[in-house]
Design brief:
The complex is a heterotrimer of chains A (397), B (335) and C (334). Chain A has a domain at 198-396: Chloramphenicol Acetyltransferase, CATH 3.30.559.10. In chain A, 25% of the residues lie in helices and 25% in strands. Chain A has eight helices and 20 strands. The two termini of chain A are 46 Å apart. In chain B, 43% of the residues lie in helices and 11% in strands. Chain B contains eleven helices and nine strands. Chain B has helices at residues 16-41, 56-63, 79-85, 89-97, 130-143, 162-174, 202-207, 221-236, 265-273, 276-286, 292-315; strands spanning 4-5, 71-74, 120-123, 150-155, 178-184, 187-188, 191-192, 213-217, 242-247. In chain B, a hairpin with a 2-residue loop joins strand 6 and strand 7 (191-192). In chain C, helix 2 (13-27) packs parallel to helix 8 (158-170) and helix 9 (219-232) crosses helix 13. Chain C is built from 13 helices and 14 strands. With 334 residues, chain C is α/β, with parallel strands linked by helices. Classes of the chains: A alpha+beta (397), B alpha/beta (335), C alpha/beta (334). At the B-C interface, strand 3, helix 5 and helix 6 of B face helix 4, helix 5 and helix 6 of C.
Chain lengths: 397, 335, 334
Amino acid sequence: MAEFRMPSLGSDMEAGTLLEWRVKPGDRVRRRDVIAVVETEKAAIEIEVYADGIVERLLVQPGEKVPVGTVMAIIRTEAEPDTPRPTASEPVSPPAPAKAATPEPMEIQFPAADRRIKASPYARRLAAHRGIDLGAVQGTGPGGAISAADIQRAVPSAPAEEKSRPVPAEDKPAEGPHTAMRRAIAAAMARSKREIPHAYFQTRIDMQRTLDWLAAENLKRPIQNRILPVVPLIRAVSLALEEVPELNGFWVEGRHRIAEAIHIGFVINLRQGGLIAPALLNTAQKGVDELMAGLRDLITRARSGGLRSSEMTEATITITNLGERGVETVFGIIYPPQVALVGFGKITDQPWCENGMLGIRPILTATLSADHRAVDGHRCALFLDALNRRLQEPSTL
Amino acid sequence: MKPKRTGKPEAAAVDRDHALHLLRAMTRIRRLEEKCAELYSAMKIRGFLHLYDGQEAVAVGVMQALTPEDAVVATYREHAHALIRGVSAGSILAEMYGKQEGCSRGRGGSMHLFDQETRFYGGNAIVGGGLPIAVGLALADKMQGRVRVTCCFFGEGAVAEGEFHESLNLAVLWQVPVLFVCENNLYAMGTALEFEHAVTDIARKAACYDLPSTAVDGMDVLAVETAAARAVAAVRAGEGPQFLECRTYRFRAHSMYDAELYRSKDEVRQWKKRGPIATFTQKMKRRGRLADADVKAIEGEVAREIEGAVAFAEACTWEPVEDATRFVYSEGRMP
Amino acid sequence: MIDGEQALRTITYREAVREALREALQKDERVFLMGEDVGRYGGCFAVSKGLLEAFGPERIRDTPLSESGFVGAGIGAALGGMRPIVEVMTVNFSLLCADQIINNAAVYLYMSGGQFNVPLVIRLATGGGRQLAAQHSRSLEGWYAHIPGIKILSPATVEDARGMLWTALQDPDPVLIFENSGLYNMEATLGADAGPVDIHQARVRRAGRDISIITYSASLYKALEAAETLAKEGIEAEVIDLRTLRPLDERTFLESVARTHRALIVDEGWRSGGISAEIASRIMEGAFYELDAPVARLCSQEAPMPYAKHMEDAVLPQAAGIVDLVRHMVNAHG
């Protein structure tokens, strides 16, 4: 049996509301099939299943809001025969303890289908605070329950937790989805600034060659397939990351983990307010046309609420591009647990010296925010240098 | 010690002013209780409501012997005692309305009238529960060398409670200045005296604690007054506790409404013929102490008082609900 | 020699209570002691021995076996301006005067709309452990703590036995002081100037980081003993003596739980509907997000007290049981 749980689609997500099931009991599902749509503080997101099998039971009804980790469906994997379901009416109690004077509370055994991540309230609070996915923590308590010590083992160097008590539920004012997203962004950004020692780097890049190349390329394409200037930037970032892979990855459990694939989170501003940074997957393997198509699709789906869960969770680095808004320079805040964020400003014509000659060139200010726990300045400089180099040789993009 | 039986009341000694005074007092009680019944029906008063009709001679007669320094401990059928003790009809009614200007701030209702100024210690609605408190109040006076009396009213139902016996024993043992007044109205709620007590002579029970005890016709205000005066004088003189049984009858149901299955209408009719107000009025008229005009004048005066009390209660205000936990404990330290 | 050292002396819990009574009787002439066998007998537990000779039969007042009568008289005397200390020999007999305590003392102030406060102190011996069987071994402090309008004190230390009485006498409302009869012979060192103590705060009797053991009365010593054993295994238990069961000082134990993230309540009372349930609920309400393990309780087994020693020991919470439970809680949860 496999359990289909409410996924954590970001460190700031605590719960989600099931909007619809795309499957019904008895349906055959394959790994990565979208079987549900879930509303989070950020957007409506399609959720994939990670098991092959047959939908045995759906445990959550559309409209229900459940905490991350809640089992939402049971998937019978192919090899298993039909099994009778455990029922709630038959709890099994252990024999009474022989020892007198130490009465132990009755252990109620819950049916397997109702099992979810067991974690102490304190452990949950610590995990939420540190952005740790409880699903990834091995509990060592009774029945695999996760306690604070399990969380602390997961991140030994995490800062001391706050002493402030959470606001009781009844004190929380009713809030709309925008406020909820604002709170989610606030939580992630505040955590990032609190925990990540940001180091900032900036360079100015002559975009003349890239823009010339892009203009030439776009002449070959029908209007609807034309490539936006940001695409070569994404492509250049991907290639530069192959040279400096340390920036592509995560800081988790007190360790720096370099990601194998490059999935670039791209900050998309939502019309109703707020922002979202879904991932363009495997950008290193994709050419500019594929990237352009992917980006267009991603923006459309982000704004209409059709993002897939993997796109929400798998970004290995983030790009923020405020050029079209007229900003010249942006020093972004890293989206934890990633370790770097690349910022692009507006390309403006500026005086530029090259080989002793003064000219007017389209200049882009590129910045890098890096987690100094994971990488040092030297590697960051190499990255910006590689980025510049790629943009001076657009034919390699 | 044998209980005394009082002889003929000293009616001849009653002058016109005193006759007017007693009649006015009993009439005030009767009219207040009638108004309570009316207001209960109109749903202005809720909860339990125990009326005193028929027993007026007891409260009025006994209270004549008390001074303002004395203390009174009463039961849940205590509107009359509070009123005659000096608590205004307005604050009594306001209490039953549940208003904060009521004598117990609307916290007690009909069964729990309290008043510090007149040393009126309730309004005790656990049968027998007031007796030990009266012993304690008297003990405090004795220990502090104060000459004052604690007068404790209770019904014959309380006589079956352990607290009755414990309290009488303690009072005699410690010789404290308390007057026990048993208002024997023959029914403990719906159970008649003979179904409740092996020995139905209440005064005899008190006497076996060596407690000087007297039984008196509780329908005769002068008899009660005379007996109470003697008993209180003895208490004040330091002769220790005294016991007075007033044999009386309640005309109305135990509480506001009951089916009265436990007694016959004829019995009630017979007792009503002996009603304390009617008999006293006739007696005083025969002796030329009272005239019809006096009765009429008193009725008019009392009607105005009750009317004013109702108007007062209506105009009173509700305690804010935020105060629900005030006075669970004292506010601030003791003086 | 330092003055402080000269001033220190070792006295028993019993002597501490007696000293407190003597002091109160000396300081305030409105104070008197009343109860069964408090005078000529010297007190069932010899607490008031010698006081009759010192203060006379008016102020050290023997009563008949009339709990409701003399407790009610205490209420009346308090209303009449005295400061009575009523001794109900043991909590078991207080059921005979529960009417006076609960229906009168606890409600007079409220029922009279704030007019009549009852400055009464009732002392009661409590607790099991002396092979006195079902009718003489009850621990009903927590049960009384259910009642608004009265205050419930549970002095576990000699210092509190010495100091709580006077503070209780200064309180305008009824205060019940539960003295565990198993503690009367316990000795401790007090300063000669030992005197009144507060009656509204719990105390941390032993600091620790791993678990908060919340208890009161005689169980305090079982908890402290357990804590010493646990310390040898590297488990540091914080032990909290509630001292007052109503009003509960929840701040102290909630703060402790916020430090240790685990709580065990040890109570000689029964588990069902007991004060331990109340404390556990307060922890849920006030420190839920601090908890790293389910709140646990070690209470008396749900049975009347048996007579046989081994059975009585099995029914009451014991230090070994506390050790086992704490070990399980700390090891199983991290």
